[in-house]
Specification:
Elements (H helix, E strand, L loop, with lengths): L2 H13 L12 H9 L10 E4 L13 E4 L5 H15 L4 H17 L2 H12 L6 H12 L1 H11 L2 H11 L6 E5 L4 E5 L5 H4 L2 H4 L4 E4 H13 L12 H13 L3 E6 L7 E4 L2 H13 L7 E6 L5 E6 L2
Parallel strand pairs: 6-9
Antiparallel strand pairs: 1-2, 3-4, 3-5, 6-7, 8-9
Helix pairs in contact: 3-11, 4-7, 5-6, 11-13
Length: 307
């Protein structure tokens, strides 16, 4: 993976704020309340900015501009998790404490610094010497680390990034309300062995991450302003282009050997979420090709052919 790819994907996931909370079923009042109570850290509260005028105007609203809250992918997944926890009647003070553990404790413990050191010392992505030197310079810049990298690099955002890379599934947040302990679980088979007694002896909530990420990504997929999503493979981008930009009524997707179950995508938003979930669960290998059959009434059949 090149430095350009890492930077581009990182920008899309952690810095580019395009997702409206309302698309996630969260009102403006709710998100502002959550931000005010430190449940959604590092996101600015909604503001109204006024233009400078020489004389008072009869209609002052015309001189004001609303600054709407927008979330990046990681923040959108987090507020969706918060929404699910409130459904279980978890108190606000408890979720506030959980938010501190998820976002602020890794910042104080300098989790991001350890990630930088790992990449500098082990270079798993085969970066060039100049890139490693740049990482080292960032690591030495305390202000940059404290106010930027430590706010966006933590175990939670690592899990979101891993979900998009589809390194291993399923992904789950295991949460014990009584103790406010949590674990991001990456889905290997040794679940009971890995968990400490606090998870085995207390009532526990399991929040699957894939459906939440799928909903967030479906919003991202359908935003025509995002011409190119760099966390998708070339084949996945082609499928997205057909579904989003050509907007057919029906798209059938299948593998040539039926290795993966076929899926039918319609104009309905829920069906678009299924496309995001389908791509997350079924990573399409590089080198795969598309056989596109354009049918009557603007319908498509796409067959994925393995290289």
């Amino acid at each position: 993976m090149t430095r350009e790819t890492i930077n581009t994907i990182g920008f899309e996931i952690f810095r580019e704020r395009l997702i409206s909370p309302s698309k996630l079923g969260i009102s403006s009042r709710q998100i502002n309340y959550w931000i005010h109570n430190a449940i959604v850290p590092f996101v600015s509260i909604q503001e109204t900015t006024s233009k400078t005028v020489i004389e008072p105007q009869p209609n002052s609203s015309k001189n004001s501009k609303q600054k709407w809250i927008r979330l990046n992918l990681a923040e959108a997944v987090w507020v969706s998790l918060v929404k699910e926890l409130f459904k279980f009647k978890i108190p606000l003070a408890t979720i506030k404490e959980l938010a501190y553990k998820v976002w602020q404790e890794p910042r104080e413990q300098k989790y991001a610094d350890e990630v930088f050191k790992y990449h500098i010392n082990n270079n798993p992505n085969n970066l060039q010497d100049s890139d490693l030197k740049s990482l080292a310079n960032h690591l030495d810049d305390e202000l940059l680390m404290e106010h930027h990298y430590r706010t966006i690099i933590n175990p939670f955002t690592d899990m979101v990034k891993s979900t998009l890379y589809r390194n291993s599934i399923p992904y789950t947040m295991l949460y014990v309300p009584e103790t406010n302990n949590y674990e991001f679980y990456y889905g290997d088979k040794s679940l009971i062995v890995d968990l400490s007694s606090v998870y085995i002896q207390k009532p526990m909530i399991s929040l699957p991450i894939i459906p939440i990420v799928s909903k967030v990504l479906s919003i991202n997929y359908n935003d025509k302003k995002n011409k190119d999503l760099h966390y998708l493979t070339n084949v996945e981008r082609q499928i997205r282009d057909i579904v989003v930009f050509k907007r057919p009524k029906v798209v059938e997707i299948a593998f040539e050997d039926n290795q993966i179950n076929p899926i039918v995508i319609t104009e309905k938003h829920q069906s678009r979420e299924q496309l995001a979930e389908y791509i997350l669960y079924n990573k399409i290998k590089k080198g795969s090709k598309l056989l596109i059959d354009i049918r009557s009434s603007g319908n498509y059949k796409i067959t994925l052919i393995k290289k």
